[in-house]
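Example (one chain per record):
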Amino acid sequence: MLAYIRLEVRRTLRDTGFVVVGVATPLLMYLLFTNLGTGESAEDTMDYARYSMIGMAAYGAMGAALAVGPGVADDKARGWLRQLRVTPLSPLQVVLARALTAGVTVLPAIVSVFTAGALVNGVRLAAWQWAAAAVLMWLGTIPFTLLGLGNGYGLTAQTAGVVSMVTMMGLSVIGGLWLPTDVFPGWLAAISRWTPTARFGDLGWSVLDRHAPGPGTAAVLALWLVVFAGYAVFSYRRSARTV
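Predicted structure:
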């Protein structure tokens, strides 16, 4: 299984589309959002640089996690999944390996945006805050990996790519990863608190405020984890009957 994981990680990191969507785009968006048209005070500018750093890191990590979907769908279309079934790998090992692959490939998005925050925007945090934010956000990508797997097993490669992109963009906006939810209308801000992206961002934002994520954040993320896990299992079982 480790050999299979290494293979999938190399395939993913060599994919130009992954590099653009999962690493370059959130990094460029972060630099643009925080360095163009800044007419506020130095304190407000720094506060936004810190807030946006978490938001854009979350956006990139979510995109990298969802990117597992089109890859799985493409493997399904090419017959690669059928080939894997004649190897010693069990179906559970195959699914777990793809999930672990996503766990590795989300790291460049988080690290690149954090590095830009520190080196370009002068964000200063305690060592434990950098480490805690990175680890919490890394763990927080698990629900989105399961969503990506569900899309991959249940949809065609082209459809999975479109669905993943629309999902990433929509959840990022509604979840406040691009703009603070303070500027949302009251009804939209209330909806935002129930999205997995808003709570995903809370994992990092809470560290900036020097406290652990609240129980509400853990509960909402756990709820979405169960929902997306069920979707992934359902999609895999259906694909096993047809592929």
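Caption: Residues 154 and 235 are 5 Å apart (CA to CA).
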